[in-house]
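Intended use. Records like the one below are meant for learning the mapping from a protein sequence to its folded structure. Do not use them to infer anything beyond what is encoded.
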Amino acid sequence: MYQTVIFDLDGTLLDTIRDLAEAGNHVCREYGWPEHSTDAYKAMVGHGMQNLISRFSPPEAQEEAQRAETLRRFNAYYALHSADHTRPFPGVPELLGRLRADGLQMAVYSNKSHEFTADLMDRFFPGVFALAQGKKPGIPVKPDPAGLYGILRALRADPARTLFVGDSATDVRTGHNAGLPVCAVTWGYRPRQSLEAAGPDALAETVPELENVIRRNVYPGAAPGA
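Structure written out for the chain above:
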């Protein structure tokens, strides 16, 4: 069994997409911009808030000062509504409880702003994770591995006994850039084909499959459950 598991947040632990979409569309309505479907937001998220607001904003709203104001308005709305519809994916809380009971060290690493990451962890998973880190100033977003390196140091975790779990090709690249094995989960916001193309070390379609990966130490080249 791995000693440490580091999880992505959006699309991996929590289904946050409706609240993110509603926050983005709230800003769009304020400015009179075209709104986007929830499915469209699934392709926009995962690269940090700066990239998210750039993607839902029209071409004429990409100037730096406008982007800063767009982000301010987005954050102000999302801070009040980040948990309106957000919920853990089915089976995730129970999995985390079993892993914690078995002594695994667990952490969260997200491109979501740190204050929102911390708030959602306190709401949905209080006391579960040894560390939960979102985007902080001076630390580049995923797939840069700097944030993962910092978490590994803080936890004194052995990279060879640490698994990174996420729902996107960006997560796969992030883990591999940090020298970690990665399990990609298919219940998030990216199509299975994009995950397979990224080359994860394991692929889990269900929470029981993810638990099997964690407990059986699936390393590069092994099939899930091997």
